Protein backbone atom coordinates (compact mmCIF):
# COMPACT_ATOMS: atom_id res chain seq x y z
CA UNK A 1 0.00 0.00 0.00
CA UNK A 2 1.10 3.55 -0.73
CA UNK A 3 2.19 5.56 2.31
CA UNK A 4 -0.24 8.45 2.00
CA UNK A 5 -0.12 11.20 4.62
CA UNK A 6 -3.63 12.64 4.29
CA UNK A 7 -6.52 10.99 6.10
CA UNK A 8 -8.57 11.16 2.89
CA UNK A 9 -6.29 9.06 0.70
CA UNK A 10 -5.43 6.72 3.57
CA UNK A 11 -9.13 6.06 4.10
CA UNK A 12 -9.89 5.59 0.41
CA UNK A 13 -6.97 3.20 -0.12
CA UNK A 14 -7.46 1.02 2.94
CA UNK A 15 -11.12 0.49 2.08
CA UNK A 16 -10.48 -0.32 -1.59
CA UNK A 17 -11.79 2.76 -3.42
CA UNK A 18 -8.71 3.81 -5.40
CA UNK A 19 -8.09 2.66 -8.96
CA UNK A 20 -6.39 5.66 -10.58
CA UNK A 21 -5.12 9.01 -9.31
CA UNK A 22 -3.85 12.08 -11.08
CA UNK A 23 -0.72 13.46 -9.40
CA UNK A 24 -1.09 11.46 -6.15
CA UNK A 25 1.64 13.34 -4.26
CA UNK A 26 0.14 16.77 -4.97
CA UNK A 27 -3.38 15.64 -4.12
CA UNK A 28 -2.14 14.01 -0.91
CA UNK A 29 -0.41 17.25 0.10
CA UNK A 30 -3.50 19.31 -0.73
CA UNK A 31 -5.77 17.03 1.28
CA UNK A 32 -3.42 17.19 4.25
CA UNK A 33 -3.58 21.00 4.39
CA UNK A 34 -7.31 21.31 4.98
CA UNK A 35 -10.77 20.70 3.55
CA UNK A 36 -10.78 19.89 -0.17
CA UNK A 37 -13.97 20.30 -2.18
CA UNK A 38 -14.67 17.35 -4.48
CA UNK A 39 -17.61 16.30 -6.62
CA UNK A 40 -19.25 13.41 -8.43
CA UNK A 41 -21.85 13.88 -11.16
CA UNK A 42 -25.10 11.91 -11.41
CA UNK A 43 -27.44 12.08 -14.36
CA UNK A 44 -31.17 12.01 -13.60
CA UNK A 45 -32.27 9.21 -15.94
CA UNK A 46 -34.62 7.58 -13.39
CA UNK A 47 -36.47 8.59 -10.20
CA UNK A 48 -33.92 6.71 -8.09
CA UNK A 49 -30.28 5.74 -8.10
CA UNK A 50 -29.39 2.06 -7.71
CA UNK A 51 -26.73 -0.09 -6.06
CA UNK A 52 -24.47 0.45 -9.07
CA UNK A 53 -24.25 4.11 -7.97
CA UNK A 54 -23.60 3.27 -4.35
CA UNK A 55 -19.81 3.20 -4.50
CA UNK A 56 -19.92 6.81 -5.74
CA UNK A 57 -22.27 7.82 -2.93
CA UNK A 58 -19.99 6.13 -0.42
CA UNK A 59 -16.99 7.97 -1.92
CA UNK A 60 -18.68 11.27 -1.08
CA UNK A 61 -19.47 9.93 2.39
CA UNK A 62 -15.81 9.00 2.89
CA UNK A 63 -14.78 12.50 1.82
CA UNK A 64 -17.00 13.99 4.48
CA UNK A 65 -15.83 11.49 7.10
CA UNK A 66 -12.24 12.55 6.37
CA UNK A 67 -13.08 16.22 6.90
CA UNK A 68 -13.63 17.37 3.32
CA UNK A 69 -16.52 18.94 1.43
CA UNK A 70 -18.56 16.84 -1.03
CA UNK A 71 -20.61 18.22 -3.91
CA UNK A 72 -23.40 16.15 -5.44
CA UNK A 73 -23.72 17.45 -8.99
CA UNK A 74 -27.02 16.56 -10.58
CA UNK A 75 -26.97 16.47 -14.36
CA UNK A 76 -30.04 18.51 -15.16
CA UNK A 77 -28.17 19.68 -18.25
CA UNK A 78 -26.11 16.61 -19.19
CA UNK A 79 -29.10 14.27 -18.81
CA UNK A 80 -30.48 16.03 -21.90
CA UNK A 81 -27.45 14.71 -23.80
CA UNK A 82 -26.79 11.27 -22.31
CA UNK A 83 -23.48 9.78 -21.20
CA UNK A 84 -22.31 7.22 -23.79
CA UNK A 85 -19.91 5.55 -21.31
CA UNK A 86 -20.52 1.81 -21.16
CA UNK A 87 -23.59 2.00 -23.39
CA UNK A 88 -24.30 0.16 -26.67
CA UNK A 89 -27.01 2.57 -27.70
CA UNK A 90 -28.24 6.09 -27.03
CA UNK A 91 -30.14 6.77 -23.83
CA UNK A 92 -33.79 7.66 -24.10
CA UNK A 93 -34.09 11.45 -24.02
CA UNK A 94 -36.30 12.74 -21.21
CA UNK A 95 -38.51 15.79 -21.06
CA UNK A 96 -37.27 18.61 -18.83
CA UNK A 97 -40.16 18.13 -16.39
CA UNK A 98 -39.24 14.45 -15.98
CA UNK A 99 -35.60 15.34 -15.34
CA UNK A 100 -36.58 17.88 -12.67
CA UNK A 101 -38.90 15.35 -11.03
CA UNK A 102 -36.18 12.71 -11.01
CA UNK A 103 -33.69 15.11 -9.40
CA UNK A 104 -36.11 15.94 -6.60
CA UNK A 105 -36.58 12.23 -5.84
CA UNK A 106 -32.89 11.33 -6.19
CA UNK A 107 -31.93 13.88 -3.54
CA UNK A 108 -33.57 11.59 -0.99
CA UNK A 109 -31.10 8.83 -1.93
CA UNK A 110 -28.23 10.97 -0.63
CA UNK A 111 -29.76 12.27 2.58
CA UNK A 112 -29.06 9.13 4.67
CA UNK A 113 -25.38 9.16 3.64
CA UNK A 114 -24.38 12.84 3.72
CA UNK A 115 -24.83 15.82 6.02
CA UNK A 116 -26.05 18.77 3.94
CA UNK A 117 -25.66 22.35 5.11
CA UNK A 118 -23.58 25.52 4.95
CA UNK A 119 -20.55 24.44 7.00
CA UNK A 120 -17.03 24.01 5.60
CA UNK A 121 -17.45 20.22 5.25
CA UNK A 122 -21.22 20.09 4.69
CA UNK A 123 -22.42 18.58 1.43
CA UNK A 124 -24.24 20.63 -1.17
CA UNK A 125 -26.25 19.58 -4.21
CA UNK A 126 -25.95 21.55 -7.44
CA UNK A 127 -27.51 21.20 -10.89
CA UNK A 128 -25.35 21.69 -13.99
CA UNK A 129 -28.37 23.02 -15.88
CA UNK A 130 -27.60 26.23 -13.96
CA UNK A 131 -24.69 26.93 -16.31
CA UNK A 132 -25.19 24.54 -19.23
CA UNK A 133 -28.72 25.66 -20.14
CA UNK A 134 -27.56 29.24 -20.69
CA UNK A 135 -24.62 28.49 -22.96
CA UNK A 136 -24.65 30.03 -26.41
CA UNK A 137 -23.49 27.55 -29.01
CA UNK A 138 -21.05 29.61 -31.05
CA UNK A 139 -19.34 31.35 -28.10
CA UNK A 140 -19.01 27.98 -26.36
CA UNK A 141 -17.43 26.39 -29.44
CA UNK A 142 -15.07 29.34 -29.85
CA UNK A 143 -13.97 29.46 -26.20
CA UNK A 144 -13.94 25.76 -25.25
CA UNK A 145 -13.79 23.82 -28.54
CA UNK A 146 -10.14 24.63 -29.39
CA UNK A 147 -8.99 22.77 -26.25
CA UNK A 148 -10.28 19.41 -27.56
CA UNK A 149 -9.06 17.42 -30.55
CA UNK A 150 -11.16 14.84 -32.37
CA UNK A 151 -8.08 12.61 -32.52
CA UNK A 152 -7.90 12.44 -28.73
CA UNK A 153 -11.64 12.18 -28.20
CA UNK A 154 -11.76 9.11 -30.44
CA UNK A 155 -9.33 7.30 -28.13
CA UNK A 156 -11.56 7.48 -25.04
CA UNK A 157 -13.29 4.24 -24.09
CA UNK A 158 -16.77 5.80 -24.10
CA UNK A 159 -16.32 6.56 -27.81
CA UNK A 160 -13.91 3.87 -29.01
CA UNK A 161 -15.83 0.91 -27.58
CA UNK A 162 -19.08 2.05 -29.17
CA UNK A 163 -17.39 2.49 -32.55
CA UNK A 164 -15.55 -0.83 -32.25
CA UNK A 165 -18.90 -2.56 -31.79
CA UNK A 166 -20.22 -0.67 -34.83
CA UNK A 167 -22.95 0.89 -32.69
CA UNK A 168 -24.11 4.39 -33.65
CA UNK A 169 -22.74 7.28 -31.61
CA UNK A 170 -24.69 10.47 -32.16
CA UNK A 171 -23.10 13.88 -32.39
CA UNK A 172 -25.23 14.80 -29.36
CA UNK A 173 -23.54 12.10 -27.23
CA UNK A 174 -20.12 12.97 -28.65
CA UNK A 175 -20.48 16.34 -26.91
CA UNK A 176 -20.98 14.77 -23.48
CA UNK A 177 -17.29 14.61 -22.57
CA UNK A 178 -16.84 18.30 -23.41
CA UNK A 179 -19.78 19.25 -21.20
CA UNK A 180 -18.47 17.15 -18.31
CA UNK A 181 -15.07 18.80 -18.62
CA UNK A 182 -16.81 22.17 -18.61
CA UNK A 183 -18.66 21.18 -15.41
CA UNK A 184 -15.32 20.70 -13.65
CA UNK A 185 -14.14 24.10 -14.87
CA UNK A 186 -17.34 25.79 -13.64
CA UNK A 187 -17.21 24.07 -10.25
CA UNK A 188 -13.58 25.11 -9.89
CA UNK A 189 -14.58 28.71 -10.51
CA UNK A 190 -17.82 28.75 -8.51
CA UNK A 191 -17.01 26.49 -5.55
CA UNK A 192 -13.18 26.22 -5.56
CA UNK A 193 -13.73 22.54 -6.30
CA UNK A 194 -10.37 20.86 -6.86
CA UNK A 195 -11.26 17.17 -7.10
CA UNK A 196 -13.51 15.05 -9.27
CA UNK A 197 -14.22 11.44 -8.35
CA UNK A 198 -15.92 8.72 -10.34
CA UNK A 199 -15.87 5.20 -11.71
CA UNK A 200 -13.04 3.90 -13.84
CA UNK A 201 -15.08 4.51 -17.00
CA UNK A 202 -14.96 8.25 -16.24
CA UNK A 203 -11.15 8.54 -16.29
CA UNK A 204 -10.98 10.17 -19.72
CA UNK A 205 -13.75 12.64 -18.90
CA UNK A 206 -12.06 13.60 -15.62
CA UNK A 207 -8.68 14.12 -17.29
CA UNK A 208 -10.39 16.30 -19.91
CA UNK A 209 -11.70 18.59 -17.17
CA UNK A 210 -8.31 18.78 -15.46
CA UNK A 211 -6.58 19.75 -18.71
CA UNK A 212 -9.29 22.27 -19.63
CA UNK A 213 -8.97 24.10 -16.29
CA UNK A 214 -5.19 24.16 -16.58
CA UNK A 215 -5.31 25.63 -20.09
CA UNK A 216 -8.12 28.14 -19.53
CA UNK A 217 -7.57 29.25 -15.92
CA UNK A 218 -4.16 27.85 -14.97
CA UNK A 219 -5.81 25.98 -12.08
CA UNK A 220 -4.51 22.60 -10.87
CA UNK A 221 -7.30 20.07 -10.46
CA UNK A 222 -7.20 16.40 -9.51
CA UNK A 223 -9.02 13.16 -10.19
CA UNK A 224 -9.69 9.86 -8.43
CA UNK A 225 -11.40 6.85 -9.97
CA UNK A 226 -12.66 3.68 -8.34
CA UNK A 227 -12.21 0.18 -9.74
CA UNK A 228 -15.12 -1.37 -11.59
CA UNK A 229 -17.05 -3.08 -8.80
CA UNK A 230 -17.90 -6.61 -9.89
CA UNK A 231 -18.97 -9.72 -8.03
CA UNK A 232 -16.70 -12.75 -7.65
CA UNK A 233 -18.22 -14.34 -10.78
CA UNK A 234 -17.43 -11.24 -12.87
CA UNK A 235 -20.96 -9.81 -12.98
CA UNK A 236 -21.47 -6.06 -12.76
CA UNK A 237 -22.34 -4.89 -9.26
CA UNK A 238 -26.07 -4.41 -8.65
CA UNK A 239 -27.36 -6.27 -11.70
CA UNK A 240 -29.75 -9.11 -10.87
CA UNK A 241 -32.15 -11.29 -12.80
CA UNK A 242 -34.96 -9.15 -11.40
CA UNK A 243 -33.41 -5.87 -12.60
CA UNK A 244 -31.81 -2.91 -10.85
CA UNK A 245 -31.46 -2.82 -7.06
CA UNK A 246 -33.03 0.60 -6.46
CA UNK A 247 -32.25 2.81 -3.47
CA UNK A 248 -35.74 4.33 -3.31
CA UNK A 249 -37.89 2.29 -0.88
CA UNK A 250 -40.93 2.90 -3.10
CA UNK A 251 -39.15 1.00 -5.88
CA UNK A 252 -37.48 -1.71 -3.76
CA UNK A 253 -38.50 -2.58 -0.22
CA UNK A 254 -35.98 -2.46 2.64
CA UNK A 255 -36.49 -6.21 3.00
CA UNK A 256 -35.55 -6.90 -0.63
CA UNK A 257 -32.58 -4.53 -0.27
CA UNK A 258 -31.45 -6.43 2.83
CA UNK A 259 -31.91 -9.72 0.98
CA UNK A 260 -29.77 -8.48 -1.93
CA UNK A 261 -26.81 -8.00 0.42
CA UNK A 262 -27.52 -11.26 2.27
CA UNK A 263 -27.13 -13.08 -1.06
CA UNK A 264 -23.55 -11.82 -1.50
CA UNK A 265 -21.07 -14.46 -2.63
CA UNK A 266 -18.60 -15.69 -0.02
CA UNK A 267 -15.59 -14.21 -1.84
CA UNK A 268 -17.14 -10.71 -1.93
CA UNK A 269 -18.04 -10.32 1.75
CA UNK A 270 -14.83 -8.58 2.86
CA UNK A 271 -14.71 -6.25 -0.14
CA UNK A 272 -18.33 -5.22 0.26
CA UNK A 273 -17.99 -4.69 4.02
CA UNK A 274 -15.12 -2.26 3.35
CA UNK A 275 -16.89 -0.40 0.56
CA UNK A 276 -20.48 -0.29 1.75
CA UNK A 277 -20.45 -0.23 5.57
CA UNK A 278 -18.84 1.90 8.28
CA UNK A 279 -17.62 -1.08 10.30
CA UNK A 280 -14.02 -0.82 11.48
CA UNK A 281 -11.35 -2.70 9.56
CA UNK A 282 -10.60 -4.86 12.62
CA UNK A 283 -14.19 -6.09 12.69
CA UNK A 284 -14.21 -6.62 8.92
CA UNK A 285 -11.03 -8.71 9.02
CA UNK A 286 -12.60 -10.93 11.67
CA UNK A 287 -15.87 -11.29 9.76
CA UNK A 288 -14.30 -12.09 6.39
CA UNK A 289 -12.13 -14.76 8.06
CA UNK A 290 -15.05 -16.76 9.46
CA UNK A 291 -14.67 -20.40 8.39
CA UNK A 292 -17.06 -22.50 6.34
CA UNK A 293 -20.76 -21.86 6.79
CA UNK A 294 -20.04 -19.23 9.46
CA UNK A 295 -19.39 -16.77 6.63
CA UNK A 296 -23.20 -16.56 6.43
CA UNK A 297 -23.09 -14.71 9.76
CA UNK A 298 -20.87 -12.10 8.10
CA UNK A 299 -23.38 -11.80 5.27
CA UNK A 300 -26.14 -11.06 7.77
CA UNK A 301 -23.96 -8.33 9.29
CA UNK A 302 -23.24 -6.92 5.83
CA UNK A 303 -26.93 -6.91 4.92
CA UNK A 304 -27.95 -5.29 8.19
CA UNK A 305 -25.24 -2.60 8.17
CA UNK A 306 -25.73 -1.71 4.48
CA UNK A 307 -29.51 -1.53 4.92
CA UNK A 308 -29.17 0.56 8.09
CA UNK A 309 -27.11 3.18 6.21
CA UNK A 310 -29.82 3.64 3.59
CA UNK A 311 -33.10 2.85 5.33
CA UNK A 312 -32.27 3.29 9.02
CA UNK A 313 -31.42 0.84 11.79
CA UNK A 314 -35.05 -0.03 12.60
CA UNK A 315 -35.85 -1.02 9.00
CA UNK A 316 -32.67 -3.08 8.82
CA UNK A 317 -33.47 -4.96 12.02
CA UNK A 318 -37.05 -5.54 10.86
CA UNK A 319 -35.72 -7.00 7.61
CA UNK A 320 -33.30 -9.22 9.52
CA UNK A 321 -36.11 -10.41 11.79
CA UNK A 322 -38.39 -11.12 8.83
CA UNK A 323 -35.66 -13.12 7.11
CA UNK A 324 -35.09 -15.14 10.27
CA UNK A 325 -38.81 -15.84 10.64
CA UNK A 326 -39.08 -16.83 6.99
CA UNK A 327 -36.01 -19.03 6.71
CA UNK A 328 -35.24 -20.33 10.19
CA UNK A 329 -38.74 -20.57 11.66
CA UNK A 330 -40.77 -21.26 8.52
CA UNK A 331 -43.07 -18.34 9.27
CA UNK A 332 -44.39 -15.50 7.15
CA UNK A 333 -42.53 -12.43 8.36
CA UNK A 334 -44.66 -9.32 8.17
CA UNK A 335 -41.98 -7.30 6.38
CA UNK A 336 -42.15 -9.46 3.23
CA UNK A 337 -43.28 -7.82 -0.02
CA UNK A 338 -47.02 -8.18 -0.58
CA UNK A 339 -49.24 -8.49 -3.63
CA UNK A 340 -53.03 -8.22 -3.74
CA UNK A 341 -54.54 -10.93 -5.97
CA UNK A 342 -58.08 -9.58 -5.74
CA UNK A 343 -60.61 -12.27 -6.68
CA UNK A 344 -57.80 -14.49 -7.97
CA UNK A 345 -54.59 -14.48 -10.00
CA UNK A 346 -52.62 -17.19 -11.77
CA UNK A 347 -49.44 -18.25 -10.04
CA UNK A 348 -47.38 -17.31 -13.11
CA UNK A 349 -48.89 -13.82 -13.20
CA UNK A 350 -48.23 -13.35 -9.47
CA UNK A 351 -44.55 -14.27 -9.85
CA UNK A 352 -44.14 -11.74 -12.65
CA UNK A 353 -46.15 -9.02 -10.90
CA UNK A 354 -43.85 -9.33 -7.88
CA UNK A 355 -40.77 -9.02 -10.08
CA UNK A 356 -39.61 -12.53 -9.13
CA UNK A 357 -39.56 -13.43 -12.83
CA UNK A 358 -39.19 -11.09 -15.82
CA UNK A 359 -42.06 -12.70 -17.76
CA UNK A 360 -44.89 -15.22 -17.44
CA UNK A 361 -42.89 -17.54 -19.72
CA UNK A 362 -40.00 -17.51 -17.26
CA UNK A 363 -42.47 -18.01 -14.39
CA UNK A 364 -43.85 -21.13 -16.08
CA UNK A 365 -40.31 -22.44 -16.54
CA UNK A 366 -39.57 -21.95 -12.83
CA UNK A 367 -42.80 -23.75 -11.92
CA UNK A 368 -41.86 -26.65 -14.23
CA UNK A 369 -38.48 -26.87 -12.49
CA UNK A 370 -40.22 -27.25 -9.12
CA UNK A 371 -38.79 -23.98 -7.79
CA UNK A 372 -42.15 -22.42 -6.79
CA UNK A 373 -44.09 -23.06 -3.59
CA UNK A 374 -47.28 -21.84 -1.95
CA UNK A 375 -47.17 -21.97 1.85
CA UNK A 376 -44.07 -24.18 1.45
CA UNK A 377 -45.91 -26.69 -0.77
CA UNK A 378 -44.58 -27.26 -4.33
CA UNK A 379 -46.64 -25.93 -7.23
CA UNK A 380 -46.68 -27.77 -10.59
CA UNK A 381 -49.53 -26.08 -12.50
CA UNK A 382 -48.66 -22.64 -13.97
CA UNK A 383 -52.35 -21.95 -14.63
CA UNK A 384 -53.27 -22.45 -10.98
CA UNK A 385 -55.41 -19.53 -9.80
CA UNK A 386 -54.48 -18.35 -6.32
CA UNK A 387 -57.31 -17.01 -4.18
CA UNK A 388 -56.96 -15.59 -0.69
CA UNK A 389 -59.75 -15.46 1.85
CA UNK A 390 -58.41 -14.57 5.29
CA UNK A 391 -54.76 -15.23 6.12
CA UNK A 392 -52.10 -14.21 3.58
CA UNK A 393 -50.52 -16.93 1.46
CA UNK A 394 -46.72 -17.19 1.26
CA UNK A 395 -45.38 -17.45 -2.30
CA UNK A 396 -41.76 -18.61 -2.64
CA UNK A 397 -39.35 -18.83 -5.57
CA UNK A 398 -36.35 -20.93 -4.63
CA UNK A 399 -34.95 -20.52 -1.14
CA UNK A 400 -34.41 -16.76 -1.11
CA UNK A 401 -37.40 -14.99 -2.66
CA UNK A 402 -40.64 -14.84 -0.71
CA UNK A 403 -43.78 -12.68 -0.72
CA UNK A 404 -47.21 -12.57 0.84
CA UNK A 405 -50.32 -12.80 -1.37
CA UNK A 406 -53.32 -10.98 0.08
CA UNK A 407 -56.95 -10.49 -0.88
UniProtKB/TrEMBL annotation:
ATP binds at residue 239. Signal peptide: none annotated. It holds the Pfam family tRNA-synt_1b. Its EC number is 6.1.1.1. L-tyrosine binds at residues 39, 176, 180. The keyword Iron does not apply. It is an enzyme of class 6 (ligase). A motif ('KMSKS' region) lies at residues 236-240. The keyword Transmembrane helix does not apply. It catalyses: tRNA(Tyr) + L-tyrosine + ATP = L-tyrosyl-tRNA(Tyr) + AMP + diphosphate + H(+). Keywords: Aminoacyl-tRNA synthetase, ATP-binding, Cytoplasm, Ligase, Nucleotide-binding, Protein biosynthesis, RNA-binding. A motif ('HIGH' region) lies at residues 44-53. It is found in: Cytoplasm. GO terms for molecular function: tyrosine-tRNA ligase activity. Its main location: cytoplasm. Belongs to the class-I aminoacyl-tRNA synthetase family. TyrS type 1 subfamily. NCBIfam families: tyrS. PANTHER family: TYROSINE--TRNA LIGASE, MITOCHONDRIAL, TYROSYL-TRNA SYNTHETASE. Catalyzes the attachment of tyrosine to tRNA(Tyr) in a two-step reaction: tyrosine is first activated by ATP to form Tyr-AMP and then transferred to the acceptor end of tRNA(Tyr). Homodimer. This is Tyrosine--tRNA ligase. It comes from Sphingomonas anseongensis. The lineage of its organism: Bacteria, Pseudomonadati, Pseudomonadota, Alphaproteobacteria, Sphingomonadales. The gene is tyrS.
